[in-house]
Design goal:
The chain has 159 residues and is α+β, with helices and mostly antiparallel strands. It folds into two domains: 90 residues; 51 residues. The protein contains three helices and seven strands; from the N terminus they run E-H-H-E-E-E-E-E-E-H. Strands 1-2-3-4 form a four-stranded antiparallel β-sheet, with helices on one face.
Length: 159
Amino acid sequence: MKKKKKYLDLVLYPNRSLNIKSLIFLASIFTVLSFLISFYFINTGAWPVGIFLFIDLLIILLAFKFNYRNSKKYERIILKDALLIKKINFRGKEKIIKIEPSWLRLKVRSYNNSGHLEIISKGKSQIIGSYLNLTELKKLAKEIKKALILREKELSLNF
């Protein structure tokens, strides 16, 4: 039995701005500063300012939480006999998309130095790399194209 050859195996992660230690450090600085400033305004009689500072703090902490949670998702692209796109969300749930690579077209769509790579096959499209910048998307498209060309060459040699 012949083993299937992998022509491409890529894992795409979002760009992380902070790791967990620096995120906790930054959140604790915001918390301490908000508490001290709120305490000052509450003691001087301007208690609504303290309440609004605590609301701002909650919004900032929620934004940190969502940013860290969304940075856990990733995508994996595998090219064997078929192109497999595995999309793993922040909870670890996996969605597998199987595409026939013989009919494949790649389009890089961009808006303001961000965008996505669109993989089109038989009239259906899949979007990958929506968190990558434009230069990373172009490199990704070139890597996929090289692997597709290598696959087609090896398939044509087998005939």
